[in-house]
Amino acid sequence: MSDIISVKDVSVSYFGKQVLENVSFQFTSGHLIGILGPNGAGKSTLMKAMLGLIPKDKGSIEINSKPIKDFRKRIAYVPQRSNIDWNFPITVRDTVVIGTYPKLGLLRRPKKEDKDWAMQCLEQVGMQDFASRQIGELSGGQQQRVFLARALAQKADYFFLDEPFVGIDVSSEEVIIGILKKLQNEGKIVFVVHHDLTKVKNYFDELVLINKQLIDAGPVHKVFQAENMTRAYERPVLMLNDLEVQM
Amino acid sequence: MEFLNDLQTYAFLQKAFVTSIMVGIICGVIGSFIILRGMALMGDAISHAVLPGVAISYMLGINYFYGAVFTGILTAFGIGAITQNSRIKSDSSIGLVFSAFFALGIILITRAGSATDLTQILFGNVLAVRTSDMWLTLAIGSIVILVVILFYKELLVSSFDETMAAAYGLKVRFIHYAIMFLLTLVTVASLQTVGVILVVSMLITPASTAYLLTNRLSVMVVLASFFGAFSAVIGLYFSFEYNMPSGPVIALATTALFLLAFLFSPKQGIIFRKIQAFNRKKLA
After folding, report:
1. Total domain count for chain B?
2. What ipTM, to 2 d.p.?
3. Cβ of B2: how many Cβ atoms within 10 Å?
4. What is the predicted pLDDT for the residue at A83?
5. Low-confidence spans in chain A with pLDDT less than 70
6. In chain A, how many domains are there?
7. Domain range for residue A37?
8. What DSSP state is assigned to residue B63?
9. Neighbour-count burial of B262, counting CB atoms closer than 10 A to its CB (0-12 exposed, 13-18 middle, 19+ buried)
10. How far apart are CA A90 and CA A101, in angstroms?
11. What is the per-residue pLDDT for B86?
12. How close is the nearest chain B Cα to the Cα of A122, in Å?
């Protein structure tokens, strides 16, 4: 069964300043969607608004015509790396075990099977040898893989990743994109806030291009066009043609 | 050794002993969460802010527990209200609110009671623990420990990654105020032992010491409790043997433990770090 996530007419403001204005789009299962736009375009804000983490001025976010709040336990969110306290006394394994919390609910503790499942998720991202390390001892790319493992441990249907590729090594990036594509093929819906234009065509099959307002949303080949990009970035995006060559 | 004999002989000393240990444990437990959530100053604020509550209870002739909890909670909400509804940053609003409450408390106490009461409340007098105080501390301790055991998972995830916790539907603001409430209870329980001014040392220092020694939250909580209880007993000993105020002795005991960890912790201690750096240099 295919799910539909629809964002309808969403506006968000911080302290009276409009950050998002009347953003609408919708996507179905089995897509890997990049949320793209210049700095300050409201990409992370859009993701947080979709997850109900910040108040909206108006608009709604629905999955299959029901409010997204009803689906919280089927959503996995990977925050920006800069939002995490990397000195927190927690090991890699326990970080991934947190992914089993939503389904456990209150008062139930993770059991052996939950811990085994967490280890399997760690293996999927190739981090099982680091299970006993404190999370701050890892490199940026390794940390990001651990957080992806945590998202996998949630057994979610909808994935939201905020800037997962910032400041990480090439091999971690490959591992992560490989897993995201696998999720896509399994029929999940994956949203990724992204700002590096070079690999857009390789990574995503659908795009949301925003700059406070929605510029365009839909399949990459339709959205990732010179005219759209110029409108979003408010300047000619020169690299665009070189990128086409690289692809 | 003589202390141990006295401990067996005197009932008042036994009460003080049991109370100090419980206070040490719960300060370590709540303190661990407080420092990881970056709310160390909040602990200081609430401990000072219970003072007017104590004074008002004293005037009304009710148990100081009720008034203290009331003004403690009021402070937590006051700080939250100022931070959320103005451009004042949270450290400033903490300072603003608690100094006002503390000042009010001092005026009320000097009006209501005698100077000795004020000193006791400010600096603690563990030897004056009454039976009712002991039971109050044990009751509060049981509540705090039970809540932390039952909701350990939720406390862990909301302290570590609040956004994820909120994303999967935890009421993170409710958890914040629940911790403030527990913090107020712990502060009230600690009044007799350490006193208002130095509660913060019991909240922050044993937890910080534990933080230097482990990479697991559960271990940190247990270690912090142990350090807290140990320091409290040291405070009791000096208070009894040398007639010193218990609060300051406890505060210095926690600091001594911290310094040991700061110097000698295998992973975080500065001495081992220097040795490691030296060895690395030699290898290179």
Report:
1. 1
2. 0.89
3. 7
4. 87
5. 1, 238-247
6. 1
7. 4-246
8. -
9. middle
10. 15
11. 86
12. 18
